[in-house]
Amino acid sequence: MTSIVRNQWYVAAYGREVGREVFGRTICGESILFWRREDGSATAMSDRCVHRRFPLSEKPSHLVGDTVVCGYHGFTYDADGTCVAVPGQTRVPRTARLKSYPVVEQDSFVWVFIGDDDRSDTVPIPRAPWLDQEGYTTVSGMEPLAARASLLVDNLMDLSHETYLHGGYIGTPEVANTPITTEVDEDAQVVYVSRHMDDADCPPFYAKSTGIEGRIVRWQDIEFHPPCLYLLHSRVAPVGTLPNEDGTDPGGFHVEVVYAITPETEHSTHDFWAVARDFALEDEGVSDFLRESNRTVVLQDVVALDALERVLAGEPDGYQELSINIDTGGLAARRIMAAQAAAGAEQVPESPAALAR
Ligand code: FES
Ligand SMILES: [Fe+2]
């Protein structure tokens, strides 16, 4: 059975990736074409021409006004996927239509709904407002992962690995040594994992970006919206500096680390990452440093998770794991995602062949 959760919104791209050029990306095993209409709105449809399945994202396929023209024999589709012209005849076959996908642009992301379109209104899209908000500066990117999405979820839910895998960047001994608290909001389907370090080494990622010298208060508050969006609310401040009782926090530096986790296939993932900060807003040097550092950290995870995927592919079914306290958040996320996958799978219409039986 598939581990991919269907009937869900996923981040397909950054808004900046979609423009007046055809652009293809595989999401949850579906090849999807993205482009913008002349009014600037984004649209998504199957990336396979109904004629002979030529990819519409492949040159010489191209846009003409608000239509896309297949680069092989010229079938032409409008922005909702309806075929409006075919070569050599005036009659367009009634069934000539590409599947189109619901699309929403929000928080700098292009979200696409994978599943039964008529359910898209009933599934909320989690928010990451800092990525597109006054008072924050954001750096971001996407790295392809040759590993299943659940491995990235495991990785992000347990940050004790920072100490070992990301030593010298974001890891210090206190991360692995400080216990976590985990909470699950079953109704909202959110998993929270918190680790508050009151007296910790300041890793280079924060020392160089904030200018703090010496030891720090370091809070990591994770908020995961399975299966697709992970938020890490990170607060650092000089040791002893806490927020005011009214919640204001002039002495703290806040970094919102966002990951959108989008399955490409069962065994590969689009790893979208973004780092938004509320300090040094105009400082290009800080932006360059955080972009480079975070990308390096993400690539350290990519190397580890790709290795893990290769290992797991060769393991017999039912291989054993051994979980400890640090895994509590990851296990909660797995449980919710398994339930979501089962519920989503029930909604997937059977294939015509199966229905005919
Ligand atoms: S494959 Fe697209 S027009 Fe023939
Ligand atoms: Fe990591």
TrEMBL record:
PROSITE patterns: RIESKE (PS51296). Pfam families: Rieske, VanA_C. This is Aromatic ring-hydroxylating dioxygenase subunit alpha. One of its GO terms (molecular function) is dioxygenase activity. Residues 9-112 form the Rieske domain. It comes from Klenkia terrae. InterPro entries: Cholesterol_7-desaturase, Rieske_2Fe-2S, Rieske_2Fe-2S_sf, VanA_C_cat. The lineage of its organism: Bacteria, Bacillati, Actinomycetota, Actinomycetes, Geodermatophilales. Keywords: 2Fe-2S, Dioxygenase, Iron, Iron-sulfur, Metal-binding, Oxidoreductase.
